[in-house]
Queue: 2 jobs
Job 1
Amino acid sequence: MNMLLSILVLLLSSTLLTSSLPVPDSPNPSTHIAYAQFTGVVTGTINFREDGSQTFTNVIVQLYSGLTNLTGQYAYHIHQYPVPNSGDCNLTGGHLSPSGYPDGAPCDPNIPNLCQEGDLSGKHGKLPGFPSGQILYRQYQDPYLKWVNPTDTIFGRSVVIHYPNGTRYACANIYAGYPE
Ligand SMILES: *[C@@H]1O[C@H](CO)[C@@H](O)[C@H](O)[C@H]1NC(C)=O
Ligand SMILES: *[C@@H]1O[C@H](CO)[C@@H](O)[C@H](O)[C@H]1NC(C)=O
Ligand SMILES: *[C@@H]1O[C@H](CO)[C@@H](O)[C@H](O)[C@H]1NC(C)=O
Ligand SMILES: [Cu+2]
């Protein structure tokens, strides 16, 4: 066999070999996991985990207490800045919106691509008040949350839960990994 042919055979066989190997889930799947843990007036966690193909983020909301207005609906968003040491939710800026849609712009859950990325309740519904002793559980997939680019990422932001009247009520930082 001449040299060129053997190189060709080698290339071909390595291509075949490569294509038969399992494709890794994502270059770095374990780093695209984050949580916000509420430990004050609201207790519970919101977990964020990107799926292996990096096409959506699985969000799990699990709250134990604090949404005490049984007739109220609580909006919640990813806000731009983390909560300062003072704990003042008013200092977390506006909603995370790499797409540039401003706060107050309409968000139709049927057209979520026109919503701010951080407008979780706009895209997925507000959280209802619930009686003491119950747990509020919500799970959904969101394809708009970003992880990598520093200007887009949900890392280092915060989640703010608002009273039914819109005033900021509780906030928690978004940290990498799982809560302890
Ligand atoms: C509960 O929410 C409802 C609906 O937004 C509001 O009218 C009512 O004043 C709230 N109750 C309290 C105690 O804040
Ligand atoms: C945050 O802003 C609201 C009005 O939007 C105000 O009622 C509240 O007192 C402020 N909270 C703090 C800690 O300054
Ligand atoms: C919003 O609702 C909360 C809880 O009922 C209340 O403490 C707060 O004063 C209200 N803020 C405004 C601006 O009405
Ligand atoms: Cu908000």
Job 2
Amino acid sequence: MLMKKIIHLSLLLILILSCVEQEQVSATPTPIMQQYQLVAEVVTTKSGKVKRGEGLFQVLGRIGLNDQRALDIINALSDEVEFSTLKVGDEVTAFYNPEGMIKAFHFSQNLVDTHQLKKENGSWVYSFDQKETVWESRIIEGELKNNSTLQDALLDQGLSTSVSNDIVSILLCKVNFRMNARAGDRYKVLLKERKFGKHIIDTTVLYTSYGGRRAGEHETFLYEDTEKSSTYTAHYTEEGEALIRSGLRFPLSSMHVRSNYGWRRHPVTGKRAFHRGIDLRGREGRSVFAVAAGEVIKSGFNKYAGNQIAIKHRDKSTSYYFHLKNRAVKKGTWVKAGDFIGRVGSTGRVTGAHLHFGFKNSKGRWINPLNKRMIATPKLSGDRLDQLQLQITEVKSLLAQAETRKVKNEFVAMGEKEIIDEVVNEELRL
Ligand SMILES: [Zn+2]
């Protein structure tokens, strides 16, 4: 125990020291230039951070990359980095050799995870570097005070705006806060926090509950799919019902946005162009699904979109699916939401296999499909429902353990409390 403590302490010290170092680095104005001695070769690095209103292109420009090099790097990273999550403070570093050639590139969105590119024989090789972190669970609970919203209460508890927003939006499907929230309503949230020293790197909401005289009693549980970025990973009721019952279905079973809607550099031509949809990562051959019921109004080929399908929905909106490997539905076919319509491919003008998904509203104007509400399914079934039940059992046992800890804490003296806390923390570690 003592030994472990010493190790903990020294680790903590290292963490604190490295944090201090980090802060010093970030305090220097960007772009910064540093000299590193690496295997007898002098390497110059230039770093920059994303500023408000900037895209990755602007940041790369600031650290000395021309459009072509920037495009090259963005293409090399687009399968690994979810660019739709780009935020202020995300950091890029370019490594140059003495001839001024870029040899490596780093991109990180937090203190611990770094996407790395290295030039080998003229092409970029990707790797991912991750510092060790621990997952810990934490319960937040309380009652609404007079003239206070759930949002206020969660922020008062020290949660970030984005986590508080997540929790409220999960419960919003069950609770009409505007009409039915009252002082004295109870809430409880179970969080899973990924920690690096004292820093919280990531927060996952595992469970929420809300209860009140007018609002009724509600509980939601996170279902976590085994597949990374699965569209099924979301909150459901104990019975497996999605919290949003209506919405578009996702066109793929996993969602990773390689390229967003709006102005961008075209990944093939390098020209600035308006991207009328989103590019979703998808291995060649993955199933593509209709996002809503409707009539197939286009199923054909052209040299830009490749194999393409368009479906007109009942409200006169239209969904578009480009670059398909093959098409499983003909013009004039009626499809239901979630029907299989084709497979992901790389036909047309593309750099690699992906699905371009576009959406026109009922007035015929292109809109960002990510602004539509999307669900994977109205209700989980089969293996996924079984898995949800297992995950619910785990969540309930974590909640019960936390209750036990609360009771224990009330009874033990200060000296022993620490030990029990440690034991319970150990159990709670996920
Ligand atoms: Zn596209």
